[in-house]
Structure formats: C-alpha cells, structure tokens
Known about the structure:
Elements: H1 8-16, E1 25-27, E2 35-36, E3 42-52, H2 64-81, E4 85-95, H3 101-117, E5 121-129, E6 134-144, E7 159-163, H4 173-176, H5 181-190, E8 195-198, H6 203-214, E9 217-221, H7 234-239, E10 246-250, H8 255-261, E11 270-277, E12 283-286, E13 292-294
Parallel strand pairs: 4-5, 9-12
Antiparallel strand pairs: 1-2, 3-6, 4-6, 7-10, 7-11, 8-10, 9-11, 12-13
Amino acid sequence: MRLKNIDEIELIKQLTFNLETDESFLKHIGDDAAVIKFPEKHLLLFTSDMLIEGVHFDLKTASWGAVGHKALARNVSDIAAMGGVPKYATVSLGLPKNYNLKNIKTLYSGIKKTARKFRVLIAGGDVSSSKKLIINIALIGLAKKAEITYRDTAKKGELIFVTGKLGGSIKGKHLSFTPRLKEARYLVEKFKPTSMIDLSDGLARDLGHIIGQSNVGARLYKENIPIAKESSSIKNALYDGEDFELLFTIEKKKADKLIKSWPKSFKLKVSEIGVIVDKKEGFYYQDRCGKKNKIKPKSKYRHFK
C-alpha cells in the first residue's frame, strides 16, 4: 500500500501501535500533548536531530530499519555525552506520498527497537507529506546535578581520552553504531569527566569544540589515536565523523585508575590520546619523532558549503 492511499490518523495508529509507557505518564498519545511527571533534583536535557534522505542516508544502500535506528541513536548519544539518561522522545516524519507503507513501518520499527534497548519512551510526534523522507526526533533526558558534563570545562594539564576506534564510519558504522550510554554512565558515576562530547563531526572538529569553548589548546599523540580497520590514515580518524564515540577529559591523577578499572564487559577500549595545553600552544598532533602537525578543527562535510 502506498502512503497516498492511507489516512493520516490511521497511519499514526499503525506506526505507534503497542508503544510502551510507564507510571511517569499522566497522558500519552491521543491528547494535544503528552503529560509527564518530572522528578525532583534532576536537570532536564533536551536535544533534537533531523535526518534527511540524500543528506544523512541513501535508501539505495541503507536499510529502512537501520535508518530508524540511526535517527534515535544520534539523540541518545547526545544525552549520554552530557552525563544524562535518555527518557522521552517525539518522532516526526516527513513522508513522500508514493512511499510504501510497509517500508515506513519497518523504519518506525527500527526506532522502536532502539527505544526499547535504551529505555526511551515515545511520547508523540507528527507526520506530514514531503518530497524527501525526513525524520526529526526530539529527545528529553534527565541528569543529576552532580553528574551533568559540559564541553566548556576542560583545563590545562588534563588528559584527553576516547572510547573505541575512529574513522571509516561511512563503510557501515554510521548506520549501526551503539550509543555509548553504558560507558558514559560509568564515567560520570566513577570518574566525573571534566568535559565530554560525542564524536558526531569527527575528532578534529569535536575536540575543537571542547578546546574552543574552554579557551585552551590540545596536543594529541599520533600513535595513541585508535584507528578503525575501515580507516586508511590518521586523516580518516581526525575528520571522517559519525563515529559516535565518547571524547572526554579527566584529571591526570585519575588516568591510571580509569585504564585499569575499565570494564571488559564494554567490549571496547578506552585510549589516552593527548593532553590539554595552553591556548597559545595551539591544536596539533605529534609523532614519535616529535614533529608537530597542526590540526584544523573542521569536518569533511558541511551542510551549506
């Protein structure tokens, strides 16, 4: 069945059938807005991401379910990077009328599967006709005041760490990545990172956000940067983007304990890749011979270039 042959209300019913709720909902889907009880002693985190066909994914190579996963997982990664827990999402879809209902239901199933995995409750959303497939997800998370982590709080002398391996995400990882929520929870509960960000735009640009907003510089060590097997060079690790690993800084005195206590159950490494330096020193990586290579905080892709 094509979407042009189905009523909007019926489409919403089919997509949102059997959504999970919990006791925090006073009103779920069906009213003008969801009504949710807000827990005391928490801060509210709010993030939103949009995926557009032809910009963020290609349906010739990406499965419908994988696109749905990516749409929500990007948001979960943002909440994790701020030391929070994802809770409630709204899902809005722009849909070409000639698209098949079965494929759209598969897309939404990908969203729901990821929501169940990370205990996210879908609280509502919207559908509209459009020329291309558009998915916009807004996600609310909660963070304890003692655990929230920002980008602009790195200080000179602190060490720079990253989870996993970097580069080559276009070969598949950008559609199948796992948001590092468990790892982020471990970090904020045990080590309190001084700053943290998820790597959506690439190591160079995202570390550039941290040092730019913190008014410091950074020295990376080339041999310490974990390069994925899909990468062909250090440039891929620096600039490819969409790795969705965690990049964070911690006090030097905590580094050894972090490396020794890192849980094997996470099935990925944590790597010390550099140090925060004075702003005057700049932003660069250094090889074994001591040669300095300036890093430009940019990414391969720019929306409006």
